Task: inverse folding
DNA sequence: CATGCATCCTGTAGCCACTACAGCTTCAAG
DNA sequence: CTTGAAGCTGTAGTGGCTACAGGATGCATG
């Protein structure tokens, strides 16, 4: 059994964030010690790690709740997981495409800028009709 | 002189967002009609368009405030603008790199998933120690 | 002149996923 | 027995909007 600080160290989720996840219903409320401190067993720590990994992969809290609910299920689960993953993958690819366009636009924007210039081409472009 | 709705149409910034920008100090408070309605001249509309373009390019509100302040200045301005643009460009490139990694990780995650499977490899990976 | 409807106004609350206090209690070490 | 770290609850703040509620105004029609 681990107190919240150790659970944080073991899972990579910060203490405040763990409490937030509990409030938000992402993870179930853990047992408490006689004095009211949260006590996490290894399954609870594994759940926190699951949430951490999923967040690092960019899944929303809503998606993670769904994934957590699917975890103990069987049969249909894997297809549902795949669907969530593929939807997220599509979102990520859209974001990448957007950012690549953005990159080009930014390069073009500041291309002719120079510290000595009195008439800034970037500002001009941003202000142009 | 345009009321806020027309200013919104001309600039591409939504009505509520224009009011938010005013509250936040991104754009100065415009003149008012006798009955208290906001009235925007073409310079004010141009400022809104400037903010819109900059936001579309991913600049933060804080950066946009700086850019707006630099706009009327001369001499040093263009170098400062370039600096803000380059910093933002670096951020964008970091985000692109992160998302490309994420893309790979997601592909790997759901690669072996299938709707018929009872043991989901994605969930397994997320739960793994 | 009255009615209706669009548009405007202010002020406040909600979104996401945390993060950061304030003010308190508990626990282990010295 | 004191000190300091770590725990607790509850609330407010972050960015950049968005969405009401509840009212006033302005313009076209009957």
Result:
């Amino acid at each position: 059994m681990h107190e919240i600080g150790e659970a944080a160290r073991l899972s990579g989720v910060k203490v405040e964030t763990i409490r937030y996840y509990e409030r938000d219903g992402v993870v179930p409320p853990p047992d408490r010690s006689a004095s009211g401190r949260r006590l996490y067993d290894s399954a609870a720590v594994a759940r926190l790690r699951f949430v951490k990994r999923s967040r690092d992969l960019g899944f929303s809290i809503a998606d993670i709740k769904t994934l957590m609910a699917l975890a103990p299920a069987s049969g249909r689960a894997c297809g549902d997981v795949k669907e969530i993953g593929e939807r997220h993958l599509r979102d990520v690819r859209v974001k990448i495409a957007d950012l690549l366009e953005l990159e080009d636009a930014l390069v073009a924007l500041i291309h002719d800028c120079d510290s000595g210039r009195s008439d800034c081409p970037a500002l001009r472009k941003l202000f142009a009709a």
